[in-house]
């Protein structure tokens, strides 16, 4: 399958600036036994505009109702005619397993985004320490690829942790990029290796001694960390205990602590709790909202479909237009200020303070 792109076509291409896109899969590449990279192009005449480290939410046709899953882009915006996600099939994963078994070149799926602040563009530093584990390498890879194209002399110490040498995602490409980036130093740590594995690197779990060995000046660097929650918690605690300036520590997570349930004063009456009403204009339903419930909870109780993935105010999947009323919205970066100004809210983290009408 080939796609001819002429200079005339490039001149006519527009930036990928909408919030909802149709993507066509153009290649599938195995990275490790349980990790795949899926490359996409736009079905429209668009080029992709985003910052390295951001994520998109894919709408996967798994069953009667689509499944929304959020994935970090592993591609670089410095090469804007295609985007890639690199995903790991966990033991009990549904969406990722569907992608492994069904998503082939030529297939089209919808995507929302991009969003996210986990990027050196948002948090610049003089020099960087990237620490990743497993598929947490993907935003780091996006940033390294981008720096290689735009600023190849960037000072980066990259520490990657994996279960075995065979599980190191992007190992060969990172070693290749290090040839062209004189200030990129690589450090790999594996939990264990078999008798047939050719491995002379560090083994065990990440700790302060290993970080200091692989990046002796880590205390002076801006740190980006991504991986499983226990891994990030261990790295964060280790750096904080060492006296690291935590304002220079950044981590990517799709499972933050849920914001506390707050009930607006307008929802309370002297003789008890008064219910607000959420009007879903497209569905033609006006539904009582229990105090403290979100717009998304109310929609589900009424059988109104609003797509949602993270349900933590991060991915932006549940973005809906608020037509009237007031809400309290405690999001985690999943909506832009310009969208809020236009009246959009995230249904998963918006609690009505008055009667509300939304476009759903």
Structural notes for this entry:
- The chain has 360 residues and is α/β, with parallel strands linked by helices.
- It is built from 8 helices and 23 strands.
- It has helices at residues 7-12, 95-102, 137-150, 171-180, 208-214, 229-241, 295-301, 337-341, and strands spanning 14-15, 20-32, 35-42, 46-47, 55-60, 67-72, 83-88, 108-115, 128-133, 156-162, 184-190, 202-203, 222-226, 249-252, 268-269, 272-273, 276-280, 285-289, 319-324, 327-329, 344-346, 350-352, 356-358.
- The longest helix is centred in the middle third of the chain and has 14 residues, at 137-150.
- 39% of the residues are buried.
- Mean pLDDT is 87; it is low at 1-8 and 256-272.
């Amino acid at each position: 399958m080939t796609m001819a792109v002429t200079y005339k076509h490039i001149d006519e291409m527009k930036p990928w600036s909408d919030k909802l896109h149709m993507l066509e899969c153009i290649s599938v590449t195995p990275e490790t036994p349980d990790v795949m990279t899926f490359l996409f192009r736009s079905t429209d005449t668009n080029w992709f505009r985003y910052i390295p480290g951001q994520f998109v939410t894919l709408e996967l046709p798994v069953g009667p109702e689509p499944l929304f899953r959020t994935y970090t882009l592993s591609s670089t915006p410095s090469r804007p005619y295609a985007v890639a996600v690199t995903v790991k099939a966990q033991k009990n994963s549904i969406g990722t397993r569907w992608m492994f078994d069904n998503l082939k070149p030529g297939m089209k799926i919808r995507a929302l985004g991009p969003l996210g602040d986990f990027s050196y563009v948002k948090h610049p530093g003089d020099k960087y320490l990237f620490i990743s584990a497993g598929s947490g390498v993907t935003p780091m890879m996006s940033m390294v690829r981008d720096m290689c194209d735009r600023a190849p002399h960037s000072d980066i110490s990259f520490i990657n942790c994996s279960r075995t040498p065979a599980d190191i995602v992007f190992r060969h490409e990172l070693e290749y990029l290090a040839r062209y980036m004189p200030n990129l130093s690589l450090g790999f740590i594996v939990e264990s290796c078999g008798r047939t594995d050719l491995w002379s690197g560090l083994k065990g779990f990440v700790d302060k001694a290993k970080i200091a060995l692989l990046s002796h000046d880590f205390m002076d660097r801006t740190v980006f960390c991504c991986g499983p929650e226990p891994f990030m918690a261990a790295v964060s605690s280790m750096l904080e205990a060492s006296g690291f300036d935590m304002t220079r520590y950044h981590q990517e997570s799709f499972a933050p602590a849920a914001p506390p349930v707050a009930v607006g004063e307008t929802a309370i009456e002297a003789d008890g709790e008064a219910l607000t009403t959420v009007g879903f204009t497209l569905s033609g339903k006006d539904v009582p909202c229990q105090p403290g419930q979100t717009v998304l909870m109310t929609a589900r109780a009424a059988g109104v479909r609003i797509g949602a993935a993270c349900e933590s105010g991060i991915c932006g999947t549940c973005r809906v237009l608020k037509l009237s009323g007031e809400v309290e919205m405690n999001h985690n970066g999943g909506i832009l200020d310009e969208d809020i100004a236009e009246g959009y809210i995230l249904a998963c983290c918006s609690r009505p303070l008055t009667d509300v009408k939304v476009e759903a």
